[in-house]
Amino acid sequence: MRWSPLARSEYRTVLSSKGAWILALLVVLWGFRPTYAGWDAVGRNITIGYIQTGVDLFLPIGALLVSYQSLIGERTTGSVKFLLGLPLTRTQILFGKATGRFVGVGAAIVAAALVLAGIGLVEHGPFGLLPFLGTLVATLLLASAMVAVGVFVSTVTRRTVTAATGVFAYFFVTLFWSQIVTSVYTAITGVPVDPYEAPASGPLFLALRLTPDGAYNVLTNWVLGVGNSAELFHIVATKLAPGVSVNAFVVEAAFDGGGPWYLHPALSLVVLLVWVVVPVALARRVFTEGDAL
Questions:
Q1: Which helix (H) or strand (E) holds 253?
Q2: What is the pLDDT along the chain (293 residues), one digit of tens a residue?
Q3: Rg of the Cα trace of the chain?
Q4: Choosing a second label site near 75 at 20 to 30 A (CA), which of 20, 119, 226, 249?
Q5: Rounded Cα–Cα distance for residues 26 and 59 (Å)
Q6: Neighbour-count burial of 159, counting CB atoms closer than 10 A to its CB (0-12 exposed, 13-18 middle, 19+ buried)
Q7: Quick check: pTM over 0.90?
C-alpha cells in the first residue's frame, strides 16, 4: 500500500502528542468507579464495565480533538501542497490520514483498557475474557467512527475555528441527545415522555441509539449481558432490578417480549459501521472533487 508511509507518519504524530495520552489517562481515571450497583450487575466483569464507563464520556470528544486537524492543519500550514506532490491519489492521502489517526487513537485506548484490566484484576480477580475482547473490539469500532467524523470535519471546513466549532457542536448535540430525541418525539406525537415510565415506542428507542456512543453502550451492554439500552451498564441493571425506578430508557422495562426486531442489540454494530463508512465516503468525495487547497 503506497499510502502506508503516510499512515505511519500520522500514527507517530498522534502518539507523540500529549492529547492521545491525556485521553488514555482520563479514560482510566474516570472509568475506575467501583460501585455496589456495578458489582451486583456483573460481578467480576465490573472490570469490563470500567472500560465502558471511561470510554463513553471521553473517547468521542478525545478522538475528535485528535483527528479534526488532520487535513485542515495541512491547509493552514501550506504543507498540503507537499502531500499533493506525492505519488498518491487524493483518495490514498485521505485513507492514509484516517488510518494513521485511528491507529494512534486506538493504541492509546487499548493501553487505557489494559491498565483498567490490570487494576480490575488486582482489585476483583479474574474476569470474562470473551466479554473483555468483545468490549475491546466495540471500543475500537467507536474510536474508528469518531476518527472518521473528525477527518470528515477536517475535510469539509476551511478554517480551524470552523472545524473546532463543528467538533464542539457535535459534542453538545450528542451530550443532550436524549433530551433532544424526547422533545422531538413529544412534539411530533403529542405523547409526553417520562424516562421513569417510558412509552413502548420502537422509533423512540431506536432514535436514542443512533449516536456512536449510544450504539456503543447498547453493544457493550449486550456483551455484558445486563440489558438492552444506550445507558451505562450499572444504570441498566438498576432499572431492571425489582422495585427500583430510575431515569433510564431500557427496552426490557418498556416492552413485553423484548421490543421490535430493529431494537436488537446486534444492530448497533451496523449503526457504528455506518458512522465509519459514511463520513469517510463523504470526505473522500469532497476531497477528490473539490479544491484541496
A1: helix 251-254
A2: 677 877 888 888 888 888 899 999 999 999 998 988 899 999 999 999 999 999 998 999 999 988 888 777 666 666 666 666 667 787 888 888 889 999 999 999 999 999 999 999 999 999 999 999 999 999 999 999 999 999 998 888 878 888 888 888 888 899 899 999 999 999 999 989 988 888 989 999 999 999 999 999 999 999 999 999 999 999 999 999 888 788 889 999 999 877 899 999 999 999 999 999 999 999 888 887 765 44
A3: 20
A4: 20
A5: 9
A6: exposed
A7: yes
